Amino acid sequence: MAGLFNRVRNKLTGRRYLISTIRKEDGAFETAVFPANFLYLPQGFRLSNPCLVRQSREPAEADELHRTLSQRLQTDYPERLFQEIASLEKG
């Protein structure tokens, strides 16, 4: 997996997000969600303040997380989804 990148518009709130999954090092992947403007560019061009960051060890796990976020972010409330994903990481 070289890297995944999706643009998503939430149907409930109308907000736009960028979802990015990259390989950080051997065996480590990072999935991040950034708020975006109407051109799907990160708001203020800031990549330092994502809404959500999640680390994965397996490529399949990172791919599944990316797909799940892309699908659910279209239909669920973003804050609830981010809380749910963050609580899965802690628990």
The topology string of helices and strands comes to EEEEHH
Distance separating the two termini: 27 Å
Strand count, sense and barrel status of the largest sheet are: 4 strands, antiparallel
Q: Approximately how much beta-strand content do the residues carry?
A: 25-35%
Rounded radius of gyration (Å): 13 Å
Helix-and-strand structural type? alpha+beta
The proportion of residues forming helix, as a percent range, comes to 25-40%
Side-by-side strand order of the widest sheet:
1-2-3-4
Q: How many distinct beta strands?
A: 4
- Tell me, what's the shape? globular
Number of domains: 1
Describe, in plain words, how this protein is organized in 3D:
The chain has 2 helices and 4 strands, in the order E-E-E-E-H-H. Helix content is 33%, strand content 34%. The chain has one domain (3-90). The model has no long low-confidence stretch (mean pLDDT 89). A 4-stranded antiparallel β-sheet has the order 1-2-3-4.
Notable traits:
single chain, 91 residues, alpha+beta, 4-stranded antiparallel β-sheet, 2 helices, 4 strands
Question: Helices, strands, pairings?
Answer:
Layout: E1 3-9, E2 16-25, E3 28-36, E4 52-56, H1 59-75, H2 78-90
